[in-house]
C-alpha cells in the first residue's frame, strides 16, 4: 500500500539550488559540478539505459547478488525491519531484498519526485501488504523519517555504489548521518564497487554506444534549458579517466576549442582542453571498504561478492 504525505514534485523551471551549484561550479578553478544535477527526467532515463549497457557491470552484478542471496539476507538481517533505501530511483533491485527479509515498511528516499512516485507505486502494487512511504528529498541533507516507522528497527539499503560519488570525507559524514538517522540497533546493506582492471573501469564509463557521453552532455543541455545558458553542446567532449592515485573514475566535459558562453546572464570562458569535472566514482579495495564503514560508525559483518570480484554487497551493524 502506497502512503504519501508529500505530493510528487515535478521538474520546475528555475531551481535556485541548481543555479547556485552551477554558477559556483563554473566559477571555480578547476571547474567542477555536483553529480546530483545529472538526474533530470532525461538524465534519469539515460542512467537507466546505462545500467543495461554491456560495459556497465555494477547494476547487473549487484542485482544478481541480491537475487541469489535471499536466504543469506534473511539469516544475517532477520525479518521485521523497516527498510530505508537511499536514492531509490526506479529500482529493479529492491524487490529481491524485500522478498527475502519481509520488512514491516519500505521507505524509499529520492531527490527526483516523479521517478520516486512511479517506482513507489509499482512497488506498492507488487507488495500489497507492505506500507510504502516515499520521501522526496536529498539524503545528503538532514531529513526526517515518516513517523509511521517510529520504534521499528531499521535496515538502511544503499545500493549501486552511490557512495562512490562522494569524496572520502563526505562519505564518512554521510555514513555517520545514516547511523544517527537509523538508530542504534540499525543495520546497513551497502553496495560498493571494487577496484579492478583499468580498461574495464574506463569502458564502463565510456561505452561504445555513447550513452554515458549523452548522460554527461545532458548536463550542458539542462543548463541551457533551465538556466538560460548558451553553451555549445557540440564543442564539448565526454571524457572518462581513471585517477589511480585517488582510486576513482572521473567524468569530465572537455572544451574542444576556446569557448565563451553565458549562464544566467554571467559570462564564462574555457581554454581549449579545459574541462568541467562532472563526476567522480570512487572504487574500493576490500580493506578500503571496511575502513570507510568503520570510519562512518558501522561495523562490517558480512559481505557478498560475485565470482569475478567486481562488486561487493556489505552488511554492517551500527
Ligand atoms: C549512480 C553514482 C553509482 O558512479 O557508476 C554511471 C553514476 N555515471 N555512469 C556510477 C554513473 C556514469 C553511477 N552512480
TrEMBL record:
Keywords on this record?
Answer: Methyltransferase, Transferase
Matching entries from Pfam families are given as: Methyltransf_33
Q: Name one GO biological process term.
A: methylation
EC numbers on record: 2.1.1.44
> According to the UniProt entry, where is the signal peptide?
none
Q: Which residues form a coiled coil?
A: none
Q: Which domain of life is it from?
A: Bacteria
Q: What is this protein called?
A: L-histidine N(Alpha)-methyltransferase
